[in-house]
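Slide 14.
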Amino acid sequence: MAVLTASNLSKSYGGQDVVAGVSFAIASGECFGLLGPNGAGKTTTLRLCLGLVEPDGGSIELMRHPVPGEARPARVRVGVVPQMDNLDPDFTVEENLLVYGRYFGLPERVIRERIPQLLEFAGLAARGGSRIQTLSGGMKRRLTLARSLINDPDLIFMDEPTTGLDPQARHLIWERLKQLLAQGKTIVLTTHFMEEAERLCARLAIMDRGRFITEGGPRELISQHIEPHVIEVHGEDVEKWAGEARPLAARIEKTGETVFCYAVDPAPLLADLARRELRYLHRPADLEDVFLKLTGRELRD
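Slide 15: predicted structure.
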């Protein structure tokens, strides 16, 4: 059963299409990833689905409610982790959860019963009385995740939940998200971390300039769009070598001082490199290769 469907969704600002005819359906219990460069339309798509922005065209159904017409009852069973933490600095950790729970009309007794479990889940059991200013960035992010669960949602929107975190905090949040999925929760995730998407998402879409340019499972997209072997080559005269090695690879790209060689059979390239004074790394293709092939390597602001 789909908990969220969008059909031919569109939104423009100042005559520019930000979301241009996007359609998708997300099943209960899955993690659906939305990837794309800055300005691709990911956050606007989430805001449309939550009823926070009026679409110019198309239709949305969230938790069996038409959106934006019935956005408020739809959001009763929805949690949101925004891109930027918006915790109240005037309240303690526990007070942030308590006040947020009241927005859903939950009885105070129910909220107070849930707070210890949520703090334990977020690794903040000992920080309930702490002021927000005393928390590290990772702690604030984990509290924002805990806050999104105060209403025991069935569906959770997460907009870049681990951006800016150190590896330890990122891995902890990944484990917590896996626990939520194991409990049958549904997650809609936007992220710039390809490893995050590969670890968590059953399906994902890559979005660029307001449109979905591909959609499927991570391994499916890798096998569909990229040769299985990648060799990254660095060193003096690497560009000259790349010209000579081009017949040995299915595809060669150069970025800065690195040459990326994509191959079905890497043996000829590896044999050639063994005779050279070049540094290289041989690895399997991954989701980041797909992302860069489809959206380009140029910097987006």
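Speaker note: The first strand starts at residue 2 and ends at 13.
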